[in-house]
Write a structure and sequence with these properties.
The complex is a heterodimer of chains A (246) and B (66). With 246 residues, chain A is mainly α. By secondary structure, chain B is mainly alpha-helical. Chain B contains 2 helices and no strands. The chains are: A mainly alpha (246), B mainly alpha (66). Chains A and B meet through helix 2, helix 3, helix 4, helix 8 and helix 9 of A and helix 2 of B.
Amino acid sequence: MWAFIHKVGSPKWFYTISARLLPWCWTLAVTLILVGSIWGLAFAPADYQQGDSFRIIYVHVPAAFLAQSIFVSMAVAALIFMVWKIKVADMAAAVMAPLGAVMTFVALFTGSVWGMPTWGTWWIWDARLTSMLILLFLYLGVIALRGAFTSRDSGARAASVLAMVGVINIPVIKYSVDWWYTLHQPASFSITSRPSMPVEMWWPLLLMVLGFYAFFIAMTLMRTRSEVLRREAGKHWVRELAAGGA
Amino acid sequence: MAFDSLDAFFAMGGHGAYVWSAWAVTALAMVGSVAHARIERRGLLRDLERRARREAATPRKNPDAS
């Protein structure tokens, strides 16, 4: 078991396996997002209340899902790194933070643009909106903390601790719409329960959500591979790789 | 098809500015992330190659030091 964990955690093993997975992840991501976008933008029926402005849902909801899922993934990677000292886990956590911050920004931006035609305001200090803004600051904090130390290991440990503590914000975001029902509507999409919207609207949203997840996995694999090359540049196997034309 | 014409599609029932700006920012963020990751990878591979060439030209005394 231990041998297995450390084999999986070895940068070289990761580098080899991820190369095989990556093309599949990209194909899946591009296909799902392309089909979902065309379906959602041009073929899904307009909402009977919101008209065509509801089509923002197809980018807003997947981005908001990723914003939260990436933080949880980053916290899990941080935990694995702290408990088992697996370096690849820390490399993955390091590359997840900027992508999570970008997705949180996208969720906030698209939400704000959607708020204007539906609520009549760009921003309000509603519980959901505020907790998402805190998520953005947590991401920025994790990124800044990692860079604030001269020793990479100290930065990695500090960023890991903040990621593990900050994950408390995730259930707050999730239940914010139920605890303080202010403006943001409760969840209207779930993979596990029956859709609360017409199926012609729900299908493209499902494709977009799955496509965004595939995009997240592909991006994380790709950038963790780069991080492996960066950190292991002096190792024998990387030098052989470079000599062989990578 | 939910729209009668291309104009209607772009107008989005009068909400065009909202819908298209939300979609544009999302697309830009995703394409930008991929572009950044590709540039990063290419740069790292170039550095590694350069390093490999340099090492091939001057054999190292201590091969374990990194």
